[in-house]
Amino acid sequence: MSGTSDGQVPAADLVRPAVTKSDSQPHSHKKASPRVDTHTTCVDTRTTRTEPVTSRAEAEPPRAPNETHRTDELEDRTFRAAFDAAPVAMAVVDREGLVVTANDALAALLGAGRDGLAGRIAADLVDLASDARTWHAYREVLRGRQARLRCTRRLKHPDGHSLWAQVTVSPLPEEERAVLVSVCDISARRELQARLRHLQMHDPVTRLPNRTLFFERLSAALEAEAYEESGTGRIGLCYLDLDGFKAVNDTLGHRIGDRLLTAVAERLTRCADEAGHARAAKPLVARLGGDEFALLVEDSTGTEQLAELAKSVLTALQAPFDISGQRLSVSASIGVVERHAADTTATALMQAADTTLYWAKADGKSRWTLFDPERNAHRMTRQALASTLRPAIEKGEFALEYQPLVGMEDGGVRGVEALVRWNHPQFGTLTPNRFIGLAEEDGSIVQLGRWVLAAACRQARRWQLDHPDVPPVFVSVNVAVRQVWDSDLVADVAAILSETGLAPHLLQLELTESAVMGSAGRPLQALQALSDMGVRIAIDDFGTGYSNLAYLSRLPVSVLKLDGSFVRGFQYEEAGDRANPADEVIVEALIELAHRLGLTVTAECVETAGQASRLRRIGCDTGQGWLYSRPVAADRISALLTGADCPQT
Description:
Elements: E1 2-5, E2 14-15, H1 55-59, H2 65-85, E3 89-94, E4 99-102, H3 104-110, H4 114-117, H5 122-125, H6 132-142, E5 148-156, E6 162-171, E7 178-185, H7 187-201, H8 211-221, H9 224-227, E8 234-243, H10 245-252, H11 254-275, E9 284-289, E10 292-298, H12 303-318, E11 321-323, E12 326-328, E13 331-340, H13 346-362, E14 368-370, H14 373-395, E15 398-407, E16 413-424, E17 428-430, H15 436-442, H16 445-466, E18 474-478, H17 481-486, H18 489-500, E19 507-512, H19 513-516, H20 522-533, E20 536-542, H21 549-552, E21 559-562, H22 564-568, H23 581-596, E22 600-603, H24 609-617, E23 622-623, H25 634-642
Helix pairs in contact: 10-11, 11-12, 16-18, 18-20
């Protein structure tokens, strides 16, 4: 019988030495035979004592010498018979590691004759010398320095089959100068454990490795020992999600959905087999849950290999599936990540794959997308901003700048637009396009918008009080449509105007065209109430949205702000010194329409004197842009009001 090691001995199997003391009373001249117990095997060397120290001695009267001799012989024969007949395979091994005697159970287990076991090296019979740790522990037991050794070994039977055995080595009392080796066949238990592990590590629907096994393999692949000695040292992952699978479950039921998942798993496995052809190992295909699958490529050769695998998967899934008489079609979105194994972790790799899968779906589905570090950095920045936006409002990290709205005829400042800035402690000063969308998504736009409105009205009132000889200027504040839905905007405006003392006609609220056009119910009622209060309503970026001119006449709007894309077309060409005639026709028509509806018009993005001249000629009321001033702090607006700084006309 030969054996192979199954690895290092578990720490729990190396029991610390137990002290065994011999009795203080003299022993009989005859040596007792070992007493064998299948659990705590030991040898009883006690003989008749001169002093009774046990309950047995107290209960029994003194025996004659011949009677004692016959009793010892009877016990010897009894223990020998028990040792021979024991169902547990056992052998007594001397301190040199040689078998003294073995029972029939051990002979049958090892497929050898009982007589042939005596004198054999026990470590060879049960494979105790195949690894250094087990061999050392075994020698310590033989020397009496360790109480017990227990280990698991895979032994090969002479008839060719293998079996798993649990080997226990226990010392006998010191005077015996031997140890007891017991061997238990645990093959059935190991087989059951293997079956249970397979069930635990595989998906019951597709029979693919599940999330637990996938992460076990991934973690093992990222260990330094896995790639330092051989291989490319790289790892790749295709993380895919089926597009529209939920509709299959909802309409045809989970039974059909499970069969579809099984069919998808078969195609993915074929793709992995083809990709692994002529390579050391094929990709691992796993179902991570729901309709999510992963293909793990160890020792990848670069992004090209992962890209080819992703393309083959998309191609394989294009053909319809025939499921229980139903002809079904599905596609997949795939996130692809490939990098050095030493530069990543399982968590980082999966985060990158999940992010890239999201990009693939956002880009239109039925496609694969490669991880982009720059795009991910932008996403991480966006996430960082989103998580700190609400606290930033409470910490006072926001400030306002103001850009003048100038009369086209005389160049006088008619009003200012309040523009919010975020003085972020990490990213510096951020303009609204960096965070307003985030604020609208998480609802913090209500809190931020209320602060902007209050700060702008307070500043407009301060200008009015500081410059009583100058006609008061109005302040224009941008309002998101979510502010109308998620808060009582009318009540907020009324309270702020009352608190600051600003007249309603000196406040202008700007809403985008897409937010205003088609408004009904609460938004329209709120706009009407604000207009009735005296607040001016302006449509921002007019001309880029729905442009529902018929609906425009029914809205309580007083100002149109032309989008800058129209105004930019007014720049003169260097050759010929002429403007684009189409842009001029469109803008002139919009201005005339607005005037006929009783509205005033503001042109955005006025940057050159030529633009201002043409806008003035076709009747535009006010202009806003860098020609007049960039957004500035409040004290610069005070200088404009007093004439210290005059905007260009």
